[in-house]
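Service request form, structural biology core

Requester: graduate student, group of Dr. S.
Request type: structure prediction, single chain
Budget code: on file
Notes: please return the result as structure tokens.

Sequence provided:
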Amino acid sequence: MARDSAQVILDVGKPGGLKMGMKLKVSFGETAMRPPVAGQVQPEEKEWLAEIEVTYVDEKMSEVKVIQWLTKPGKRIKMGDKFRVFKE
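Core staff response, request fulfilled:
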């Protein structure tokens, strides 16, 4: 997908909790870090790629549009990137 592409398709639909107008952030390079003593997984560090908004949703998939790029040029959304709901 080209960086200037405004539409993205997600393989998550209504059963996954997505709704029209919902805003999400897309991230990549997530790595879980472990504290040396407890051995429990801490929250993941994220580098955000873009803010996106759901423009269409059905039972199996959703379409979103990029609202704002959050990274340097050269980065793009690709298969396997993660998305998270965020509150304005």
